[in-house]
């Protein structure tokens, strides 16, 4: 989760694609060049330990685009494949 957040921060599309499950990965991934990620808070992590095949991470990530500011609150699902964790999908949580 943290490596994917960092990839968004630095614009590393290659890492995002490589860590996204091929069954749910979009054909094209274009990042907003104006959007800046400014913080990450892990709210809850479930499973995802050394013996787990699946895990869920709930997080809040703050961003800004010019004078606009916001927060992405998501519950992300991951699966372990080929010795690494792959992002499957996420449910955006609205207040």
UniProtKB/TrEMBL annotation:
InterPro entries referenced in this protein's UniProt entry, alphabetically: NTF2-like_dom_sf (IPR032710), YchJ-like_M (IPR048469)
Domain annotation YchJ-like middle NTF2-like: ranges: 1-90
Protein name: Preprotein translocase
Species this chain originates from: Microbacterium salsuginis
